[in-house]
Write a structure and sequence with these properties.
heterodimer, A: 333 residues, alpha+beta, Zincin-like, two-stranded antiparallel ribbon, B: 186 residues, mainly alpha, rod-shaped
Chain lengths: 333, 186
């Protein structure tokens, strides 16, 4: 694994965010085209042989696609706008986090503030989640929304030095703009998987219940219909694979090691972070958050999250390195 | 044709020099900003000291000399003009405050006083903050020194008036005093 400097990492993350942002409309338009293909399978009446035949009407597909594309783009743009404006609130809502003021918990506030001062970084917001499990994560896409979230479990169980190590790790994620890439990818994967679910459900319903004029005629179409369903299933699987590539593109093991290194450098105390990781690995996780892609944000990835078709694919490319490995590397200094 | 090539090369060189100069200016300003931040924390500390003395006076009537020492050290630090004086006065204030802290351990009434506890918490937080901003000042200095001393910046740095700057370090004469463990008198 090649280590790169912080400036390179930041530049890389910014570049990845932009590429993800650009890939998104392309993928949506691609999926739209595939969707149109489903309806391209039509029947027509051949006057010469006096029978119906089925064929694939490419013109129809392309015309449908061209007329639907602006709508798709508009919907995507609105969705992205909502995500951009409200991503902080969405994450807060998903995790049940509440903001923290200095007088509520000066210990935590001072730890974060002092660490920010020692590297000249403007201070992010702090959120607390009322949860006995130990967890911490960083989120946010710009200075206004950068946030470090801690659970009450981790606040109560770690001592000041260990907590400083964990906070430094999260602050490094923010500095490196890791959070930006991760949130962009989470929003996309979320949207794409929702669209995919809607599509598969819609398509299955269409074929099982036989809606639409071209289905009226008899067993000829019945046989062909099943083939189309299979093709659609294959296409959907291909799209799902695309999604995993997207997610994998956005996540990387390197980032966790860099955040560990950055955190250790910030606090000048790698052993504190190592001991914190030990304590966290005993009880990681966060309440009812089950999404695998959101879990990429956490400091230690809970192993028990294996839900859903997409999740089992993405878990192959798990982003978090082995916790034992992280502890070993930190303690060798 | 060669005309154009020469022009392009010169333009690229000029842009390069401009880039280096701007970078040096930014780093130097960063460092000055960091230095000013240290002063901000010091001022906060100087502001807290009278409050501390006022809170303690009622309880620790026997410690008049110690409190006076702290007050005197504080005025010296506030009125110091040159940087060396500032650093020396600041060190005196630090040792006076830590002496006071140790002595006040013997007063249980004082330790139960909410005001005092809060002030103590604030003071130790300010010490942590001072350490943090000093560390940042040192890394800003390090970045400036790197830019000034590495090639090709070092060629231009001299021309533009940038030179290696010093870190926030303890003077050699004081290092001996600081590295000795603090005396605890009862």
């Amino acid at each position: 694994m090649q280590y790169v400097g912080i400036q390179t990492q930041i530049a890389k993350n910014n570049w990845n965010s932009i590429v993800l942002l650009l890939m998104f409309p392309c993928i949506i338009l691609g999926m739209l085209w595939v969707f149109c293909c489903i309806f391209g399978y039509q029947t027509a009446y051949d006057y010469y042989s006096n029978e119906q035949y089925s064929y694939f009407n490419w013109d129809f597909v392309n015309e449908a696609w061209v007329s639907l594309a602006p709508w798709a783009i508009a919907i995507v743009a609105i969705w992205l706008g909502i995500a951009y404006l409200f991503n902080a609130q969405m994450i807060q809502h998903a995790t049940g986090a509440k903001p923290l003021e200095r007088r509520e918990n000066p210990r935590i506030y001072n730890i974060v503030e002092n660490l920010c001062m020692s590297c000249g970084m403007p201070m992010p917001k702090i959120n607390i989640v009322n949860d006995p499990q130990l967890n911490a994560f960083a989120s946010g896409i710009n200075q206004k929304t950068y946030t470090v979230t801690l659970t009450t479990g981790i606040i109560n169980l770690l001592d000041d030095e260990e907590l400083a190590g964990v906070v430094a790790h999260e602050l490094t994620h923010i500095r490196n703009r890791d959070t930006r890439v991760l949130i962009v990818s989470i929003v996309f994967v979320g949207i794409l998987s929702t669209v995919l679910t809607l599509l598969t459900r819609g398509v299955l319903r269409y074929f099982l219940w036989g809606g639409g004029g071209s289905r009226r005629s008899g067993k000829n179409n019945g046989g062909a219909g099943i083939i189309v369903v299979v093709i659609v299933a294959i296409v959907c699987a291909a799209i799902a694979y695309f999604l995993t590539l997207l997610t994998r593109f956005a996540i990387s093991r390197k980032r966790e090691f860099m955040a560990d290194a950055g955190g250790a450098e910030l606090t000048r105390n790698p052993r504190a972070l190592a001991s914190a990781l030990r304590k966290i690995s005993a009880n990681p996780g966060l309440g009812h958050v089950n999404r695998e892609d959101v879990a990429q944000l956490f400091i230690i990835h809970p192993q028990k999250l294996k839900q859903g078709f997409l999740d089992s694919l993405t878990s192959m490319f798990s982003s978090h390195p082995n916790t034992q490995e992280r502890i070993r590397i930190l303690e060798q200094f | 044709m060669t005309w154009i090539i020469i022009l392009i090369v010169v333009a690229v060189l000029v842009l390069f020099v401009i880039g280096i100069y701007n970078n040096l200016v930014k780093l130097r300003n960063n460092r000055e900003n960091a230095f000013a931040d240290i002063d901000v924390q010091l001022k906060q500390r100087y502001d807290l000291v009278p409050q501390l003395v006022a809170t303690v006076k009622g309880y620790a009537t026997h410690e008049k000399e110690l409190l006076e020492a702290v007050t005197v050290a504080r005025s010296a630090a506030v009125n110091a003009s040159s940087i060396d004086d500032k650093i020396a006065a600041d060190n005196m204030l630090t040792s006076a405050l830590s002496g006071l802290k140790v002595t006040l351990e013997a007063y249980p009434d004082l330790k139960a006083n909410q005001n005092f506890l809060q002030l103590q918490g604030e003071l130790s937080d300010i010490e942590n903050k001072l350490a943090a901003v000093r560390r940042f000042f040192n890394s800003a200095t390090r970045e400036l020194n790197n830019a000034v001393q590495t090639f090709p910046g070092n060629i231009l740095a001299g021309m533009f008036g940038f030179h290696k700057e010093s870190m926030y370090e303890i003077e050699a004469s004081e290092r001996a005093a600081v590295e000795k463990a603090p005396e605890i008198k009862f």
